[in-house]
Amino acid sequence: MANLIMEFPEIEIKQDEPLMRYTYTHTGGPADWLAFPKSVDEVKTLVTYASAHQLPLTVLGNASNLIVRDGGIEGLTLILTKMDQITVNGDEVVAQAGASYIDTTIAARDHSLTGLEFAAGIPGSVGGAIFMNAGAYGGETKFAASKATILLPDGTIKEMTNEELDFGYRHSSIQENHGIVLDATFKLTPGDRDKIAAKMKELNERRAAKQPLDLPSCGSVFKRPTGYFAGKLIHDAGLQGYTSGGAQVSTKHAGFIVNIDHGTANDYVNVIHHVQETVKKKFGVSLETEVRIIGRN
Ligand code: FAD
Fold first, then answer.
1. Which one of 81, 86, 127, 235 has the fewest beta carbons within 10 angstroms of its own beta carbon?
2. Under a CB-based contact definition with an 8 Å cutoff, are residues 128 and 117 in contact?
3. 297 residues of the chain, pLDDT tens digit each
4. Are 228 and 260 within one domain?
């Protein structure tokens, strides 16, 4: 296989780079090639190369909603966190895909724009937030994002409207069209800076009181099953504290799995399967993962 570092000396690329250095769970094997594009042109160059050479391509944002298996990721992985510009034009905030969602909420606050407070503590990137329709405390990305620029697998760049993004519960059309989010525009409303700041502070305090933010995790592991709460089912099944290797169902928030002691992706997957089987047996409810499990075994 060609050496991508020599092929693209102008782009930052690492070979056999352990992804546990980047994932929020602190787990995951190496990416064959991990590239850190700084511009849309660099993304396009790498995507074109991968497609011409049948190299599997994976895109990561902040890796806060992912479990990368211990075998790592085959082919080329792009991590977009160096594309992190945020611009405010009137009541619109335009953020590149790799910008932190939290920084985007801070930019909105600092320009006295309301509508993104709900995301003040969501640790993903803007691209990941669009892909997942990230949401919290009654807010959803769906209600703030007016459009996003997408690089489609055929190499074309398309501006997709909110309707075309087809947001649903932890869903957007990017999950089906396999595009790469390049940037997103949030259409917000002028508001009172102090009120916006107070709301963000309140939500972050609620989050810190409920969630095990002092330990590595990937947030809520399971989607909310219709008519139930995943955390409550897991709590009622007596699973809090259940441990496999170094991964444990959080004793603070049953919906989280925390890395308490050098846990591996395999430990995470074992805990997930045990939780799914136990909840199914006890309550007849199937828990579907919200977190995405990718990579080689
Ligand atoms: P990643 O984990 O890097 O990727 C997730 C998926 O998105 C992958 O399939 C990836 O391929 C895809 N993706 C990422 N970027 C792009 C892109 N530019 N183009 C195309 N595809 C892309 N989530 C919530 O919704 N609400 C919460 O309140 C919340 N709280 C959390 C708290 C903690 C402590 C943690 C660790 C996580 C939490 N999460 C929450 C989960 C996570 O932060 C969100 O799902 C976030 O939107 C994921 O963004 P990311 O950049 O980390 O995506």
1. 235
2. no
3. 689 999 999 999 999 999 999 999 999 999 999 999 999 999 999 999 999 999 999 999 999 999 999 999 999 999 999 999 999 999 999 999 999 999 999 999 999 999 999 999 999 999 999 999 999 999 999 999 999 999 999 999 999 999 999 999 999 999 999 999 999 999 999 999 999 999 999 999 999 999 999 999 999 999 999 999 999 999 999 999 999 999 999 999 999 999 999 999 999 999 999 999 999 999 999 999 999 999 998
4. yes
User: Is 110 found in the same domain as 174?
Assistant: yes
Can 207 be counted among the known catalytic residues?
A: no
Mutation to probe ligand 1, out of 22, 42, 65 (largest number of atoms < 8 A from CB): 65
Claim: this prediction has a pTM higher than 0.85:
yes
DSSP three-state, residue 35: strand
* Whether residue 179 is found in the same domain as residue 282: no
CA dist 18 and 238 (Å) reads 34
Instruction: Identify which of 64, 167, 176, 268 to mutate to test ligand 1's pocket (most ligand atoms within 8 A of the CB).
Output: 64
The bridge status of strand 30-35 relative to strand 13-18 is antiparallel
Residue 128's domain spans which residues? Answer: 86-208
Per-residue 3-state assignment (H helix, E strand, C coil) for 237-254:
CCCCCCEECCEEECCCCC
**Listed residue (114, 116, 78) closest to 100, CA to CA:** 116
